[in-house]
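To close the chapter, one final illustration. This time we ask the reader to focus less on the individual chains and more on the assembly as a whole: which components sit near each other, and how the overall shape emerges from the parts.
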Amino acid sequence: MKRLCLIFLFVFLFSTFSIFTYAKPIVLRLGHVVSTKAPYHVGALRFAKLLKEKTKGNIIIDIYPGGQLARGEREIIEQLQFGGVDLVVTSTGPVGGFVPSMLVVDLPFLFKDNNHVDKVLEGEIGKSLLEKLSKAGIKGLAFWENGFRNLTNSKRPINLPEDVKGLKIRTMENQVHIDSFRALGADPTPMAWGEVYTALQQGVIDGQENPINIIRTLKIYEVQKYLALTGHFYSPALILMNKKKFDKMPKNYKKALVEAAWEAGRYEKNFIRKNEARMLKELKELGMVVTTPDKSLFRKATESVYKKYENRFGKDLINKIINTK
Ligand code: EAX
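The assembled structure is written out below.
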């Protein structure tokens, strides 16, 4: 009899404990391809902190930086689509390959300045672009920032569009970028980010283009002498989530994910913008020869790209972006 009571007691305690055992937090894996010094990583840490606070520790983010999960952004977005990774921070560069309408933001000289960027991407136009990502099994949580892209090369200072002629320039895997550098007479070479530093070091390519923060934090100055402040593309960034995973989340967690994504995005943008001047000064101190070309000449030289894409994106949408105040 005593033995039977002990067995009942054990079963009761075990079942009680297991019912009230604290539910395990949800752990989401986040990947990006840049260094832990880069703004994407700063934003990802902020996102993780905010999300943990908003869900009282029930959602934890594990960050995999520096291309640990994939060599380039196209590949890591492919992993996101099939659920190999839950969240990705990426530039919009390769996203147009998954959702063509996203390519509109990559048109040369489309955005005037940071204020114009924020008005467009935090407004209705930005939100409608995020919604289009769902067709590719991707939940676009928010826009972050990569920044205005500038041209580096190892051959010569760039002051005029004709100085770009014949240079083998690495571009992202982005048809608008490829067409824009073709219009400048360059030889555009699309390449995953993880291969760029070595290709520059070996002279396989002459140049690449990226915002100041990438050139500085990914040490591109070590393999490039000349930096031209062309600002030829504005490169938005995105924080993306596997859509199936997002859709399965309870309503309050969905709200927390989107809120934390936008708040972390503003934090990341501010980090880029308040450190840009310091990073440029450091690039000069690290030996880069910096030129400040007349942007209007480069804008004119790439106008033909608009002709090619007006029908695809719609002249109305392009004008709506340009005229957003
Ligand atoms: O997203 O591939 C690129 O040039 C991107 O700007 C960089 O990886 C940051």
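The beta strands are 26-31, 59-64, 87-91, 138-153, 168-171, 187-190, 207-210, 226-242, 289-291. Residues 251-285 form the longest helix (35 residues). With these observations in hand, you are ready for the problems at the end of the chapter.
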